[in-house]
UniProtKB/TrEMBL annotation:
It is a multi-pass membrane protein. The keyword Transmembrane helix applies. Residues 22-392 form the SLC26A/SulP transporter domain. This is Unannotated protein. PANTHER family: SULFATE TRANSPORTER. It comes from freshwater metagenome. Its main location: membrane. The lineage of its organism: unclassified sequences, metagenomes, ecological metagenomes.
Amino acid sequence: MNRLREFLPNRADYKSARTTWRKDLVAGITVGIVALPLALAFGITTGAGASAGLITAIFAGLLAAIFGGSNFQVSGPTGAMTVVLVPLVTKYGVESLIPLGFFAGLLTLVLGLLRAGSIINRVPWPVMEGFTLGIAIVIALQQIPTALATPSIDGGRTVITAWRTIQGALDVGLNFSAIAIVFLTLLIKFTYPKIAHKFHIKAHIPASFLAIVISSLVVTIFGIDIPKVGDLPKAIFHIQKFELFGLGVYELIMAVIAIAMLASIESLLSARVADQLAHIHDDAHKYQPNRELFGQGLASMFTSLIGGMPATGAIARTSVNIRAGSTSRLSAIFHAAFLLAVVLVLSPIISNIPTSTLAGVLLGTSYRMASPANLREILRTTRLDSSILIITALIVIFIDLIWGIAIGTALYFLFSRSFVRSLLKRK
């Protein structure tokens, strides 16, 4: 029983809540504004729909905040998870997310109980940078059908699917209205921060949120006929019927392992980055990796049963949370409450958001994830680090996420000097 207590919420989680809750409220609303378009976009990209993205952001965000091991982590649907889920949804249907999400969440939870967090947390930084770069490129490729307002033509691998989709769009004729809205979204997303800095605009308005508002107004005012998000369900969530939906045992096991490993690695990476951004150095306040896995697993299990999908810790939203002044996990709870309020009140407005705008938001997010400046800096370091980064990214893009991490990590330790030296000493 004492061993189980470390995985459960306690008073220490909210020690500073009485004096700093106002800061957490502001941070929660800020990150909620950022999370809204991403939740919609990732839900649509996965094929589960905008409502699934919102359900995941709200309820996974809430449960992971309460039961997770980080004081600053913000969880929900992420680009990395869509990379794994898109081919599964394409092959087995959106209903397959119910058993896949539940069992993957259960496996993640068990990994936490078995204290596997410290092992997963040792993935080398060059591998994680290559992993992030590969994911960024795959996310961008996944946006091609939405950006062009054309059906996706399945080709198995993401690169082949993207190429066939572009060829199909060229054959039937490009939708220049949708493309123009994508470019308008990107223009606002990258230009507004510079304008705000130049004119000393103090009001913090996330560029993605502003881009969605302006582009949606342009589409409405000029009557541009392009696909929109569409009506959201009136019920916030509904219990799903649990069955395997044609999944074989082998397919189920392999997919569950892939989803659980990705959720574990991405969540722990995000939590580790959060502590660095918040300048947390003492062990008493650092994130607890095993509890984090427990919380993320519980969140994915629950959301998969109510119409959502597997969730992970989100690095971008977590960093926004910290920069906005978060002092405790209360800000992530406020973020979930804010999203719930928005969905209940503004559902008709959300339904009129152009999907091309959301594609533009994710293309901009992919560029930020790839971080060209940071990438150039890493490529100028040691040959080992730069080689591992490139190899990992290529495997992620052309083969698989988990294989990218596994092979990249194996190669890193195989060729690192410390490993070679240790072998020589043994001889």
